[in-house]
Amino acid sequence: MHYAEYKQHDPSLVQEMVRTFPFATILVNGSNGPLVAQAPLTPRSGEGPAGAVEFHLALANPITGSLVPDVPVTLLVQGPGAAVSPSWYTASFAGPTPDRSKTAPTYNYLSMVIRGRLSLMDDQALQDQIKDLVLANEPADGWRIEELAPHLWAGWRKAIRGYRLEVTEFDLTAKLSQGDSPGDKPGVVQGLRRRALQDDATMARLVEGYDGSAASLHALLNDLRVR
Q1: What is the rounded distance in angstroms from the CA atom of residue 72 to the CA atom of residue 9?
Q2: Model pTM score
């Protein structure tokens, strides 16, 4: 499904994707194949136009032995995905007995792979990352890090390690029905909302508002965060 028409190349979208879908899969090469962990990311400004991300992991996680400075690391930031039925192409295949012999089901999705090299964060940077993670996810009147008992706050930090990844390259795929006939998009949106499984409602909003441009994806990602 990786076709050129589904790619976005605006580096500012990297930070938008991380803010909207912060929980990432972390991959690094191990002696017996890829090692995998998951953690929420904190977006940061960086040396390049795509910025940087920070995260932390428990030292008990086996992957930490391979996450060393300057090692190449891949992160997967996964947005919504949803199957699309050709029966929803109501403009292209109208009538009681439409000929759908030259079409097939497909899958819409929004996904980003970022790559870069790691550095380790010092204790102050780790504290800042955790505090910002709390602020990003707690409600306005929710829990704050200052409520945590100081001896626990100090002790727990000894059991985790913080990482910073300067983003050197990214691959952002937005397959959101933009290749379909414009007349078919309302049927796809209606079909997704009627089925109402898993990511269908979010995907319907993306399909409805996406015109293939970086600007429209920026607006949609922001809208997903504020609504």
Answers
A1: 21
A2: 0.93
